[in-house]
Design goal:
By secondary structure, the chain is of the alpha+beta class. Helix content is 50%, strand content 18%. It has a five-stranded antiparallel beta sheet with strand order 1-8-3-6-9. A four-stranded antiparallel beta sheet has the order 2-7-4-5, with no helix packed on it. A hairpin with a 6-residue loop joins strand 4 and strand 5. Helix 9 runs antiparallel to helix 10. The longest helix has 22 residues. The protein is globular.
Length: 280
Amino acid sequence: MENLSALLNQHTFTSDVNHCGLLTAAKHFTARGQLHLLESGKVRILRKGQRELLMDRPSMVFFPIGVTHRVEPVDADTAPKLISASVTFAANPSSLLVNALPDVMYLQLTPDCAVSGTARWLINEIQTQRFGKQTMLNRLGEIFILQILRHATEHGNLQEGTVSAINHPQMSKVINRIHQDPAYHWTLDNLASIAAMSRSKFAEQFKQLVGQTPNEYITGLRLTLAQKLLKNNKPVNYVAGEVGYEHGSALARIFKKKLGLSPRQWLQQTKRNSVQQAII
């Protein structure tokens, strides 16, 4: 896993707490990645077509990608204490890092568990309004995903096909070059040249290892970088130029195609979500 630095730049980290306190009835979760921290009591997690997950001691369950599930108390007479937060690591759902993770991770909240310690820190930071909050969340999000990756690696839980793309001697060069200059006018020819392959062999192997065409991968990266700049209040036309598009309307078409929103609509929605998060 020597090529993680460039890949981490592909990711934004967004989160919000959607439950905090005693869980007195079943609660449903959908759409985004989800982190559950059980501080006391017992809960069960139910997913369609999957076995029940029982949390009967202080522990953490993490779903990297959104999966519909519900969490309910096991003992009707003793309400468990639970903190839940939706977590998104990447705007690009085909991120190599996210796809490398197992579908679900379970860890006990022990003093020597670094992942659970960072998870608690994340939750505390989400719930407070302090100077540099988003910057802190971004850094903690990077630490959290690295710890998750390290834990999964040490326990043999990473998806080997995805890891192969990160560590492939030729493909990793291509991925690093793309991340170094995502706004460059990349073509199948110049990418294949970096990989020292023919066009057809490169296109086939990239799709096989990464799970996307080179153009889809570059578009996803540019979209993520554009979102970071928009959140920093940069004008749409400026953002378009920074990520490789000639004008704002070209960037708007990509946003509309991938997210169903214009850049301004996406930013407004993000700001509304931030306000709602602050209220929680």
